[in-house]
Amino acid sequence: MSVGYAQDTHHKILKKVPVPYPQALKDKGIQGDVRLKVFIKQDGSVKNTELLGGNPILAESAQKSVSQWKFSPGNSETTEEVLVHFDPAAKQ
Q1: Whole-prediction pTM
Q2: Residue-range domains of the chain with CATH
């Protein structure tokens, strides 16, 4: 399985679910970045994600995986911006 690459955030990520790169899109050379706003609960779990920009055809895959991430707990709910990069030429 191919995966997209997500950059690290200011919050420590305790559990990072790999972002699958849909094979049909990779085979067609469809690439790009997806920017997400991630709403993090006080316990570190993801409450919701919001698409800020990028290729909408890749956004579903990015949102589905990032919503399963676990961040370090905090004193209140916070948000982080996450960038997921999809590159068909990247080595796995």
Answers
A1: 0.82
A2: 3-86 (3.30.2420.10)
